[in-house]
Amino acid sequence: MANPLARRIDQAPATTAAVKAAIAPPGDETGRDLVFLGNKKVKANYTWRPHKNGKEEAKTSLFDFGSVTEEQLITLAMYACKVKVQAQLRDMANVDPTKPVPSNAFATVDVRKDIIEATSKADPVARAIQALRRAGASDAVVADALKGLRATK
After folding, report:
1. Which domain holds residue 49?
2. How many independent structural domains does the chain possess?
């Protein structure tokens, strides 16, 4: 029996503008700048470092997904999905480090609701606080950053 996921991605229904916006919202702070060109092609503007202490360099690449199967595309997407779920689990654990995260948390993940929509609707201040905490910032550093935000309003 043929694998139903092994159909070519160009046979999948066309991606709507709303889905594209949910995948890469305008102004996304991750630095992604995606342009959907059609025919399963995406132009991406991003930065990279040639080595650990190197200067950041701008790069533009054209990604052609025309020969990628749906199964291969899902496999690629799974890495990003797992990373986002791991981050959400860490956030849950950091709310009260004395309480364990429930074992059934994210037992089933609705990718649209739990990852795409949760990420795009997050409060920018909350995301800034989370970024500072992930970078190892102390409570005092986070508090100073919040004071700075309030002073600019």
Report:
1. 9-122
2. 1
